[in-house]
Amino acid sequence: MRLHTSPASPFGRKVAVVLHETGLWPRVERRDASLSPIAPDAAVCAANPLGKIPCLELDDGSALYDSRVICEYLDGLHPGPKLFPADGPSRFAALRLQALADGMLDTAVGLRYETFLRPEPLRWTDWIAAQKLKLTRALDRLEQECEGFAQRIDIGTLAIACALGYLDFRFADDRWRDGRPRLAAFEAKIAERPSLAATRPG
Amino acid sequence: MRLHTSPASPFGRKVAVVLHETGLWPRVERRDASLSPIAPDAAVCAANPLGKIPCLELDDGSALYDSRVICEYLDGLHPGPKLFPADGPSRFAALRLQALADGMLDTAVGLRYETFLRPEPLRWTDWIAAQKLKLTRALDRLEQECEGFAQRIDIGTLAIACALGYLDFRFADDRWRDGRPRLAAFEAKIAERPSLAATRPG
């Protein structure tokens, strides 16, 4: 299998974390792509017409994307404890938490494009404010919910760790830990896992 | 259960299609929200801190999002044929196709924001061109792949139908059917299903 990814991609990091947790890295060849939404990578586009990473090429020539699909696929390839609970309330608790993390990341990556990639005269302050407010709401909700998930290791909590790590990487000045001691404690503990320590961006 | 959605939301349509296909609409109260990325809806934000629709409030007070999580949850509540294949290659074929459809929709909805919501002097032509190219690549790929999935009814093909329907709704001038006869024939046939006919936007 061949993984198109990038060290700075938070969704790529989520896949890398799953590869670490499941012991599957030896079965995957890693290819780092250099791309942006306005400068796509030809090899990525050949595998994923959306031109986005992560994208996992399988040995039969087909390709899987996006990160959620790749992570669930990988979780079916190893004999260890599953990161995607099989079914019932624990499955949907994990999937909902992953969706919250992915939504935070979509927001944060979009903010990065707006405030870094887009030419300065074309930036829209109302948009930036609304996106920052969305992140604030999500972080406040995580602080409230944290005790309910802090002890779990599954795709939901690992995705939240990747989302918080991306905020540290790109939006450190926003100091997400301020006023959120439980979430900060959760992140400090889970970040010690080898899968997260080995994939920290920057 | 209570579903926060909107008639114009293509991701909301995907959930509505699943509710039709599975016969679950009688168990769901529908609430139409009026919102945009810069004007969130308070009731939606209370259930989903990202402020996005669709969002499904469950009877225990918890809430599920995004559309993928909701659709998979609903698919576990009915006795009929499953829209999410249980496992193996058919599951990942369906999930990958859903991811392609969702990625097309993220792109198309983003284009809509860029060309309609964003003040005109702040629009970025290079961004618009790159996003349109992404849709072109995805449509061309679907035309190539179409014979492989055209006979299936699952979350992947239903999601593709919703994506193509959104292009008809918001980007009719781009004439996605031109030069793509197989994809056009697939869409014409699947659009006849009651679930899609009853949820057509606009």
- Radius of gyration of chain A (Å): 17 Å
Largest interface, C-beta closer than 8 angstroms, per-chain residues: A-B, 45 and 45 residues
CATH fold-type name of the largest domain in chain A: Glutathione S-transferase Yfyf (Class Pi), Chain A, domain 2
Shape of chain A: globular
Q: How far is the N terminus from the C terminus of chain A?
A: 26 Å
Give the strand line-up of the largest sheet of chain A. 2-1-3-4
Number of helices of chain A: 8
Structural summary, described in words:
Two copies of one chain form a homodimer. By secondary structure, chain A is of the alpha+beta class. Chain A has two domains: 2-75, Glutaredoxin; 88-193, Up-down Bundle (Glutathione S-transferase Yfyf (Class Pi), Chain A, domain 2). Helix content of chain A is 56%, strand content 6%. The first copy, chain A, has eight helices and four strands. In chain A, strand 3 (55-57) and strand 4 form a beta hairpin. In chain A, helix 1 packs parallel to helix 3 and helix 1 (10-22) crosses helix 6. Chain A starts with a strand and ends in a 5-residue tail after the last helix. The mean pLDDT of chain A is 97.
